[in-house]
Amino acid sequence: MSTLIAIGFKPIKQQPMTLVTKANVTCSHGVEQDFFGRPGKRQVTVMSKEQWLNVCCELDTMLPWTTRRANLLVEGLSFTPAHVGKILEIGDLKLEITGETDPCKKMEISHAGLEAALTPDWRGGVTCRVLNDGVIREGDAVLLIS
């Protein structure tokens, strides 16, 4: 069983993440108050705790998951290219997985080697399109639907 274990958003570009225990997620704004939540293929980003721990192990340091700047952190699910087009169901919310969240130069600025460590095996997470409005909460079950 997979679980939503953390929720974050960026209220202002290039500012720290804001963490919440519950969030409204909408088709028009993604995670409510997120700077990047406009409609499109990259409305919400989701990262796997297990894949993040692999990154930290490779870097020999424990970085907070928010260093990656993803919106949602899930446990019990690792992402692969085969997941593109599938639906993530988190509570009543449905997200379509649209692709890989490619690491950028900002990751290297955050920590030396982070960009390269995120590159293999979809460790940086996935991008998603919001299919319906919903409220999500830490602890919600996460289902991957074909």
UniProtKB/TrEMBL annotation:
Source domain of life: Bacteria
PROSITE patterns given in the database record: MOSC (PS51340)
Gene3D superfamilies: PK beta-barrel domain-like
Domain (MOSC): residue spans on this chain: 17-145
InterPro entries in alphabetical order: MoCF_Sase_C (IPR005302), MOSC_domain (IPR052716), Pyrv_Knase-like_insert_dom_sf (IPR011037)
Recorded GO MF terms: catalytic activity; molybdenum ion binding; pyridoxal phosphate binding
Protein name (record): MOSC domain protein
Organism, scientific name: Shewanella violacea (strain JCM 10179 / CIP 106290 / LMG 19151 / DSS12)
